[in-house]
Amino acid sequence: MLSIILLKNGVEKMTVNSKLIKYSASCSLFGDWAIKNKLKVSKSNTPKRGDILLFDFNHNGTSDHVGFVLSAKGNTIYTVEGNTSVTSNDNGGCVMKRTRYKSQVNYFVRPKYTDDITAEMVIQTALAEVGTKEKPKGSNKVKYNTWYYQKAVSGDAYPWCMVYVSWVFAHVNTDTKATTPTKKAYTGSYPNLSNVSRKYSRKYLKKGDKGKEVTKWQKFLNWAGYNCGKADGVFGDKTVGATKSFQYKNGLTADGFVGAKTISKAKETKK
Question: Whole-model pTM above 0.70?
Answer without folding.
Answer: no
